Amino acid sequence: MARFIFITGGVVSSLGKGLASAALGALLQARGYSVRLRKLDPYLNVDPGTMSPFEHGEVFVTDDGAETDLDLGHYERFTGVAARKTDSISSGRIYSNVLEKERRGDYLGKTIQVIPHVTDEIKDFIAIGEDEVDFMLCEIGGTVGDIEGLPFFEAIRQFSQDKPRGQCIFMHLTLLPWIKASGELKTKPTQHSVKELRSIGLAPDILVCRSEGPIPQKEREKLALFCNVRPDAVIAAQDLKSIYEAPLAYHAEGLDQAVLDAFQITPAPRPALDMWEDVADRIYNPEGQVKVAIVGKYTQLEDAYKSIAEALTHGGIANRVKVNIEWVDAEIFDREDPAPHLEGFHAILVPGGFGERGTEGKIKAAQYAREHEVPYLGICLGMQMAVIEAARNVAGIARAGSEEFDHEAGEKRFEPVVYHLKEWVQGSHRVERKLDDDKGGTMRLGAYDATLTEGSRVAGIYGSTQIEERHRHRYEVDVKYREKLEEAGLCFSGMSPDGRLPEIVEWSDHPWFIGVQFHPELKSKPFEPHPLFADFVRAAKETSRLV
Ligand code: GLN
Fold this sequence. Notes:
nucleotide-binding; binds glutamine
């Protein structure tokens, strides 16, 4: 049966709880254990699928088609364990489950209360698949003291009581602010945060303290004394130049040892960290640099394209180069010539997105990349824009566009080269959707197979003609334009197994121009860079040598 590690946060948000959890997961794996990471989010949205990327960062999609918080991306990147639907839940989902059961009469007319009905729902969720792994790491979103978080804190308190002693531990992440004027590291906010936790019945076993510098012994002892933890369970988490150093840095600070001590696992198996040492070595000792432009819409918030940025870093790891990303707002090209903005980049990436705004700019970016032979990777909307560019400027379909934009505008202006997908095949059954379904849950989501053309560039890159990648979209390139576009030179080198849905396009006579309908970035890891990103960065490296 799994041991449980509950990870909570205090003092301020954005301390990197997700990253700390992910790095701890990686360290436990390095010691030979199996792990699963889970995120419990207190917000009331039923899932993050409809939350604005401006506000919440990217939506991370799992193989089984869940739209989740971007922290699940961190979990996967550090542990390689594919997240599932059952690894992410919000208050909204919990309440909606409880209310659904109430409507069905499952509670037999009882009064429905936060305790026990909501807390039981949370506890059932935490326990899913507990027999499958050695350690289950559950991160509670938000900060201790938040009203929305209370049922979660209560649920994990009860959960640890329900389990045999020693099967659950609590790790609390806080901030030690540095007061410049007095030259002091302050422990008081952490003390208060722990006091808050204790008032709701939770006593942390481990404190992870974000601080700008190392924690002096005196402060460490003070924290241990006032917060009732062992001095060696006070772990300093200093800012790192690369997140991928986190497993090594936490190990050096004794985090994994403290966790195993808290579970009284002795002797602890020694960790094998060579994989992480190699990753850090490649990141910190690059042999060159490349400059990649990401031409997108949500460029003010880098988290909106989190997995893409990480996958590019992984591509850099594969090629021992540092990838410098510059965010270019696609809307600029609505007004201005892209050339001066895109000159000097060794590669161009157009990411996914929704809505018409900025799309003409993305089309121009694709055109620029095609005409100037700059490596281009178009992801989802970025692929659709590349196809529209090809249709308009090479295949002579002057009014080519996407139905998405016509739907949005409420008028028919374009020839729908990209059209709304109303039904598709998932495994052995057919899925049907109407456009006026609820906004949430009307997309083609999760892992789907694709068949690649023998001898195509992508088949070479993947080293296979059968692939499986994750999707999140409503619109598709219409296969009826295939012949016309292929005559123009745009090869449809990846298709759904039934041949109806274009999955990959590539310009056969371009050094590197690939558009994919899926999201390869979601499956890339630092220790296993995604082949498309590895090869895209290789192509960028080649371009950098030419200029
Ligand atoms: N908006 C496009 C669609 O729904 C692309 C989506 C995406 O880029 N993820 O098909």
